[in-house]
Amino acid sequence: MKDHQCKNNSKPVNRVADDNLRVIQSILHETSDLKSRRITYQESAGMIIYLESIADTEKIQQSVIEPLNRAMDKAQPVEQVITNTELSLIEELHKGVGKLLNGSCLLTLDGMSSMYAVNVTNQLTRTPEEPSNEKVVRGSHEGFVDSLTQNLGLIRKRLENENLVIKQYVMGQTSNTKLAVVYMDDLVNKEVLAEIFRRIEGISVDMAFSPGYLEEFLENKTLSPFPQMLPTERPDRTMAHLLDGRVAVLSEGSATALILPVTFLSFFQSPDDFNSRVLSGSFFRMLRMVSFLVAMTLPAVYIAIIGFHFEILPNELILPVKASLEGIPFPPIIEAFVMVFTIELIREAGVRLPTPIGQTIGIVGGLVIGDAVVSAGFISNVMVIVIAVTAVASYTVPTYEMGSSIRILTFPLMIAASLLGFLGIVMGLIVILLHLCKLESLGTPYFSPFAPLNVSGLKDAVIRFPLWKMNSRAMDALPQNRRQHNSKGWKRK
Amino acid sequence: MKLKKEDTITSFQFIFLIIQAQVGVGILSMPFSIYTEAGHDGWISVLIGGCVVQVLLILFWILMKRFPSMTLYEILDTTTGIFIGSIIKGLYFIYFVLVGSSILSLFAEMINIWILPLTPRWLLIVLMAGIGIYAVRGPVKFLARFYVFVSFMLIIFVLLVIYSFFEVDYLNILPIGQKGIMPIINGTEKALFSMLGFEMYFIVAPYVNSTSIKKLKSASISNAVVTIFYSFLTLICILFFGLNEFKLVPEPLLYMIKSFSFKVLERIDLLFLSLWIVSVATSYMAYLFAASRGLMSYSKKNKEHTPFVLYAAIPSVLISLIPEGVYKIGEFTTFVTYLSYIFVFGLPVMLLLLSLLTHRKEKQQS
């Protein structure tokens, strides 16, 4: 357990069971869920101590009390009597308290200078459901749950391999949250792994309630608009990333696995790409890339055209655009800001509300405001179209984090476009691109395989090659073993 | 595979670094300035210019082979001694800053003429310099990654220009060599000025993690690409405009592209200019890097150029604000290009001779 507890409570176990209970009670500040039950085993009085809230009383009864009663007359040591799989002998009280908080029950007997800790954790589980923010059309519909052991089980079930390693950490000075680092030992880059361990060990926080909370402590550039680690609730996605030589971090009480190091492209991949046929998979992926560009630049381009470069439109287009602008009191940048702001309002309101009300908000916000604002003559028709397309495009990105960072990036581009037209957009894009080239996720290039250019990596970038063509792993995580076994064995003679 | 901690780039990235340093602000007016000297044989001048650059690159390579892990600045220190070395280093720093500021002022002028006539020049210059500062701070490998990525745009460049093949008149290049040899040689001079940027070989070559001969190969490939690209552009402009019209168009590429119109986009020259801005930015970044790397060589403690970028960028911005109007900027640019005779052609050759005569070499670590 943690150091600060050792300092206060490093007392040896008492020979009298009642004294032990009293000390433990005082350590836990007389908490109400601390329960005890007196027992007698082979003429010595004893006590079973447990925390009612996390211990499973059924398990205590089955694996501790019943075997003890049955073996009352035989002269057997306790180790042989108790049928539970996890049993440990404890010499010091503070360790016992640590076990207690983990969900074990303590068995203390008069005349013994140590106690037994038996694992009787109450597994509070829910059934694996499909994560609502990472739905797929075909393929696995399982998602992570809130229990760490069950999540690790979900990964193990998919990767029956002796190289899958799980390293546990305890995180959070106060919360003592369990954290698991999962990787494939024969694939992961040892230097990256060592760096991850170094960073995890260096973090000191009071509370670590989810991997997403840790993300800020682990990443290099917190102020970057781009997420540098991929949170996912899908075990199949986690598995695929582990097989690319990446590392997953899971924590107790959270249904999210954090995958690192990742690239920019990982946020645009979906298991659906690989479940569907090559052509449609590639098409949808290209659609997402295009929608990324559209979501980021479309309002800016429109503002630039309206404000500076009307002449770029062909004659046939000028008339309808000009007609819709007639009588609009605001400059295009204000129009755009009002509309983007409204859409963000609707989104933020809809996210937190229960589904039926959320739909109402969508209808009121989308239809009523959109329609009324145009007929009132505040906002031009074309602007409503532009902003609506932008909003829809920003939601096609399969990960929520990337979608929100795109939406944040539209604002500086819109301002730049309103000041300098196309020049502003190009300058803004240069800065964003430079930032992407400079960004590293744990020392590995973030914008790979585009920069640094990696031709074999491009097979799984904008389009997806057939699986049997992808014979090398993604290079960005610098895996130990480049070759990947994908072949149509039957096609060779 | 190893995590790359040290700041090196690959020879593949080196190709694009030099291409992007060479292709820059001058590309819009290059065909015109060559045409004024060489007439409709300008494309031959460009090819000859490419050969001259190749010879120079080989000379550079011989020099750099003797000092594999040194940039120009460290070579100066070793061959000419600390005192003279630091004076010449200072001159080189000034030269790179001057080239940087000529890029900035040409850029601002072109934007004022073509896109934003009312935007103040200083704003454009400061913004571009800001981008340059952001780019150059940090390891060279990040810069190289960016250069490789934006090189995709050169392909779009070429595609836009190729479209004009539908409207050219092939008879315009005939008769070849009508005016004789001298105009072609004069045109070569102009072509060489547009190809400047290959002197980055001196600064960047030590960062390339590769053998010396491979570095030469990379530089030669980039020279070949740029030469072919430039002569292609010149040729197409000659074919498109013909003798009489060419005299009226100082930015022939833009005028040519402006004349096309597609169903969706009416003015493609705006798109073309947007791509051109990226090329301008990359060559400015290259010179900014060269200048700040020069400042770094004065400092004994610092092993990174990042803290010096600002000191290189500020003078380039200030100098670029001085010349106003097309003619002043033209004079300034011509002055800077003539300086390159000394710094790109003269001094390196002298250095090579000096190091050959004195048998100075970098001490091999073994």
UniProtKB/TrEMBL annotation, chain A:
Protein's UniProt name: Spore germination protein
Record field: transmembrane: 247-268, 289-308, 367-393, 413-436
Alphabetic keyword roster: Membrane, Transmembrane, Transmembrane helix
Organism: Fictibacillus fluitans
UniProt record similarity statement: Belongs to the GerABKA family.
Automatic annotation (TrEMBL), chain B:
Classification via Pfam families: Spore_permease
Localization of this protein: Membrane
Record field: transmembrane: 12-36, 42-63, 92-116, 122-140, 147-166, 191-209, 221-243, 270-296, 308-326, 338-357
Keywords tagged on the record: Germination, Membrane, Transmembrane, Transmembrane helix, Transport
InterPro entries: Spore_GerAB
Its membrane topology: Multi-pass membrane protein
Protein name: GerAB/ArcD/ProY family transporter
